[in-house]
Amino acid sequence: MFRRSFNRFCAGEEKRVGTRTVFVGNHPVSETEAYIAQKFCDNRIISSKYTLWNFLPKNLFEQFRRIANFYFLIIFLIQVTVDTPTSPITSGLPLFFVITVTAIKQGYEDWLRHRADNEVNKSTVYIIENAKRVKKESEKIKVGDIVEVQADETFPCDLILLSSCTVDGTCYVTTASLDGESNCKTHYAVRDTIELRTVESIDNLRAAIECEQPQSDLYKSLGPENLLLKGATLKNTKKIYGVAVYTGMETKMALNYQGKSQKRSAVEKSINAFLIVYLFILLTKAAICTTLKYVWQSTPYNDEPWYNQKTQKERETWKVLKMFTDFLSFMVLFNFIIPVSMYVTVEMQKFLGSFFISWDNDFYDEEINEGALVNTSDLNEELGQVDYVFTDKTGTLTENSMEFIECCIDGHKYKGVAQETDGLSQTDGPLPYLDRADKNREELFLRALCLCHTVEVKPNDTVDGVTESSELTYMSSSPDEIALVKGAKKYGFTFVGVQNGYMRVENQRKEIEEYELLHTLNFDSVRRRMSVIVKTQSGDILLFCKGADSAVFPRVQNHEIDLIKVHVEHNAMEGYRTLCIAFKEIAPDDYERVNRQLIEAKMALQDREEKMEKVFDEIETDMHLIGATAVEDKLQDQAAETIEALHAAGLKVWVLTGDKMETAKSTCYACRLFQTNTELLELTTKTIEESERKEDRLHELLTEYRKKLLREFPKSTRSLKKAWTEHQEYGLIIDGSTLSLILNSSQDSGSNNYRSIFLQICMKCTAVLCCRMAPLQKAQIVRMVKNLKGSPITLSIGDGANDVSMILESHVGIGIKGKEGRQASRNSDYAVPKFKHLKKLLLAHGHLYYVRIAHLVQYFFYKPLYDAAYLTMYNICFTSLPILAYSLLEQHINIDTLTSDPRLYMKISGNAMLQLGPFLYWTFLAAFEGTVFFFGTYFLFQTTSLDENGKVYGNWTFGTIIFTILVFTVTLKLALDTRFWTWINHLVIWGSLAFYVFFSFFWGGIIWPFLKQQRMYFIFAQMLSSVSIWLTIILLIFVSLSPEMLRIVLRSVRRRSTRNPNLELPMLLSYKHIDSGYR
Amino acid sequence: MTWSATARGAHQPDNTAFTQQRLPAWHPLLSASIALPLFFCAGLAFIGLGLGLYYSSNGIKELAYDYTGDPGTGNCSVCATAGQGRAPPPPCSCAWYFSLPELFQGPVYLYYELTNFYQNNRRYGVSRDDSQLSGLPSSLRHPVNECAPYQYSAAGLPIAPCGAIANSLFNDSFSLWHQRQPNGPYVEVPLDRTGIAWWTDYHVKFRNPPLVNGSLALAFRGTAPPPNWHRPVYELSPDPNNTGFINQDFVVWMRTAALPTFRKLYARIRQGNYSAGLPRGAYRVNITYNYPVRAFSGHKRLIFSSISWMGGKNPFLGIAYLLVGSLCIFVGFVMLVVYIRYQDQNEDEEDDE
């Protein structure tokens, strides 16, 4: 009984080999056979990281994995155990604060994820149990349950279609959120169960299903036409019954979904690098100080002068131990060079800063009534660092809706929307004659459009027989066809539907023409065309064929081609999908033969496909070309402009899509990813061919392309950005199967080689298009690029569940809040309603955040010991708030300028502001200022007295002076760097200085009963009574600020001189040119 | 904004200046045209100030004498050798003779200076109990641990005042004698030993414990003086307002110095005939030599100094101001040159267009 339940607990890591047996309805198949309760995992989807129970330990563990947190923990422990000059509170409190704030933040974010998961897991589904419909929560579905799904619902798990409400047991499904293909696919019920259309009958079903163990490859298993995948949506079918075979984390979707790992931004990596440098400095400093201490102490009167004797215990301490604790004390003493509060501030900056993204009105989309969504605030600055952009096509670049743009009949171009039903509006084509084509040809063309397709009309509920043309809803497995039919309708020919094998078309005169549909020669990707054979009312048998130009042209009369070819090519340039329409009359005798052949082929048991193909091939010859159509895969608003801008910003845009290559290619043209002059390198199944020696051919191609590219770019990659604008541009097209060939042929010796050659090619191309990608392949590509030399920052943007793995894999994942559900936006770091928003997100927000955070970090490392309270207050209050305000509000360049001038983005790419140079600059500046502060005050204290009453000052005054200078300098320096003074900046900067003064008075003005030592008492007030100290403070502040002032002035002078008018981007110009030329 | 107010949905972000990052802002740019005058002005101001400071610092007179007693440096060397290696050193006194050819402009302040004495040593610096010094009876009996090894005496009595700082109180004393006429009698110059500590220290921070039966001595009963002291804290001075914890010498000493070489105010000379300064004539300083400094190779010095509005003699500030001021002007000129050159170039370019 439990025999098998042991080794199948849940979606374990064990190898999934063999098959699984699913008992439909969880009933045993036969009475004799014992029902073995198999244990499959439940249907819960978990994308959250923590549960209520493991939150605290897991979160703490993750937080202490950060170098800085761990470091501060160590420091804190040292302070607790070893006698040190500073109290443990000074570092413990901030640490506690940091940890708490971070934990709360992460907890909140995880709570949001929990809520999102629950939304899915708790959604109601109907399960057939004991011949009754039972309402259940989605997560309760078990493998073997029979699930009822209604129209427009998404499948809660992977189902085997048992029966649907239609007689033939079909249902329409859109897998848009899985692979991005939004068209309706037809799935068929298992033949034996088609009839089980009622609750009772289906419950009586006793069956077992043998199916393979869960696999992630979408395309391998999309084949079984009765498997309905979780995440897909049921369309145009009232309801279906299916049996759950894979549930929860074992569904295809979940397997394609990758675990969410904590993403870290490049800035954080830089911070960590700096931290290590500073840690090193710290250790060195502590070591040097310890050495010096012992050198100094080697003279006995220094070690233990009579005025400062040691306690017995101190004398007895073992010397090595003493040295060690001394070392630790020094370390603690200097630990303030690594600012604990920086992490607080950085966290706060990120957290608060992310609100600005979600608040941005430009990201607001009226259609879905939502703005941008920020899921992770850790990556704001990463948006300013992106090198590669991976974008999904469907729903991201495109609206996912086709539109009929123009057609061409016998070389006459028709464009625009015809308002009247009785005629076509004609626009001037580039052709020499302006007259219309022959009326008959026109009608023939339109009839062809109306007939040559596999579109079905969704029956209207209200009126049965007589359908009103305006209410027709078309559906088809290809959105192009719908667009074409709709296009024909615009010109007066309306496809009304199929009745009893007759296709009914309403012509321009509102008459219904009926055509007997004799045969449909379905579309396939090899032929790249489809045909129908119809019989007109008058008895003529006609064949209409439509297909890609390359597939149709060889099969028509040559003289017809020339006229239309011009149009087709022109349209293709503009990124439209073009189809050529041809027809042929078939004599009745011929038809008999054709008919027989077709039926024969269809009935063939063996090599059916091949035989069909052969017959099709024979039929579709000697046709007459009528015209061509252009359909626009409607791009999202401003998609092309955005891509242009991204290009200009020096980003590489890759399109990864699950779509067919042709479709994807035309989209790429449309959105100007490929320019007209871009030379395309193709690495697809087509170019490689289905030969035995695939790999050799691949190798050949790869090396050939590489040669080509290397010739073109002899220089190193550094000059690449410039080179783009000058040289021939290359675009690469690769498809999924070729990619897997390149990536997965690891057994062969040459695989690594392929990979590197492939990468070399990729890097040299301006644009890369990857089509026919499975979600995991998308992620593979992203990972491959991510691991390139120099580890470029990648950004993925997509809208469907098929993009989730890619979004998760890349450094920054952006989800489009599109029509294809919320999977992508839920798993992304940022979600925006439209692709165009990417532009502002990257160019403006990304840039600003990067500059802000870079400044923030540098500033913190720049800030250079003293009373405990002061020390604690120093980092947190006096100097943190201004920088926080600065880092939230700074706009060193106007947002509008940033969006309109993408070149600015290049400046900060490659983490430019956090490289060694600026880092050293800030460090030296800090060192310089530290020296100025100390020695300035040191020399000042050479005197007898600083006061006109001759009284002397002690060491606490000394410290306070330095500290005051420090606070003022640091704050004023920030003021110097601020370019964008809002009232908040004013408030915070001046406020913090005022607060410092106030606090100093307050802290020194009262005897604090809880303090052991009243050393700060009245120091500050007394200090300010001395004119000399005032003068020193002013002088030293001025001296330490002057290098920065000089730098700023010089830069502004230089900037003015280098403002070069010739720097206008050629790319932008060209884009404008294209724009005006085409409209 | 493209959207209309009616189309506003529930999820529409607020369109405020703050959320849209469109707060009105001031864009100051430190351009050359602002910075240049600034530099010149600052430079001139600094030079002016520096000159003033320099001259007033130069106007301050200082007269110093090293009485450590290194062999051959005067009669204090006797005391120094006598105290060598003996703790506590025997009482000894020596004298310093000097003469002023002209009036030493007052008010004159008398300082003592110690070198190589690390009052800023951390272990030393924390070795005190501020609550004991503020007169809390409980702290008087239970000094804080930081005071160790000067927390409890060998007999187990709490030390008051506890700690290394108090224990090492400077205990040399000086008196100044003036010989008006040659070979005439020496007249003692009155030294004002009050008002040498910070007002707040003397009046607030340092307090004697409450008197017991009107006697300070009784208040301190049950405590021991620091081991190096010759007399208990309540006998530091006969003046009831200057004894115990509020003895001004003690208060001054307790304000630890920042650097190993430091001066502390000993007395002010402002009474009687000497309010205007020290008149011409021969002087003698009687020194009670108690404080051993040779053990840590330190030095003791005695300093007469006058004071200006900016404090004691310190040419540094004036020089620094002068230096920075001239640098400012220099940099200003350099920038001016750079600026003009670039501007010329710009104009050329603009002409070219």
UniProtKB/TrEMBL annotation, chain B:
Subcellular localization, as worded in the UniProt entry: Membrane
Any one Gene Ontology cellular component term annotated for this protein: plasma membrane
Main subcellular location of this protein, as a coarse class: membrane
Domain of life of the native organism: Eukaryota
Cross-referenced InterPro entries: CDC50/LEM3_fam
GO molecular function: aminophospholipid flippase activity
An example Gene Ontology biological process: positive regulation of protein exit from endoplasmic reticulum
Keywords: Membrane, Transmembrane, Transmembrane helix
Family membership noted in the UniProt record: Belongs to the CDC50/LEM3 family.
Name of the protein this chain belongs to: Cell cycle control protein
Native source species: Ovis aries
Organismal lineage: Eukaryota, Metazoa, Chordata, Craniata, Vertebrata
